[in-house]
Amino acid sequence: MRQNSQTRQTGAAKAIKDIRRATRKQDSAEEKIRIVLDGLRGEETIAEQQSSTVASFLLIMATVLIFTADMHHVMLRAIGDSYTLMEPGASLPMGDMVNIIGRRVADSFALGLRLSAPFVIVGLTYYIGLGLLGRLMPQLQVFFFGLPVQIGLQIWVLSITISGIMLVFLQEFEEAYQGFTLP
Description:
The protein is mostly helical. It has helices at residues 2-23, 29-41, 53-68, 72-85, 94-136, 142-178.
């Protein structure tokens, strides 16, 4: 009886392994690259995305600009020079690393605020005006009236400021990696 139950368990385990082996997806290198490129193109639906469409657009545009302006060479040079700055096997300078990480995080938030400043200013001004309009005309459906105008206004601000935003991003990107390269 005991041998019969062990045979059934091994038979069941063998069947599960066979099913897993048969249904395992084997992707070639070309198919994996295609999957990544499809993801970068944003061909999945908006409901499946973890970020907004505008954020995906800005991410793809920044990535393209990094490669177009040859900034990826700065990253590769920083990786190579980091072995000179921090010798393998030696103890890490923890005090310096903490200061650099803290400074980079603070600089990232400052950069984010500088890049989003036009949208913050326009949005704040718009909401103040919309609040005043709602107080002056209580019968007006402010949200129904204001949402299409807000979307159009923010797209207009994006179309005007996108080139300046990307230029500032590229400049800050290069300066951030220059600290890790040798002169």
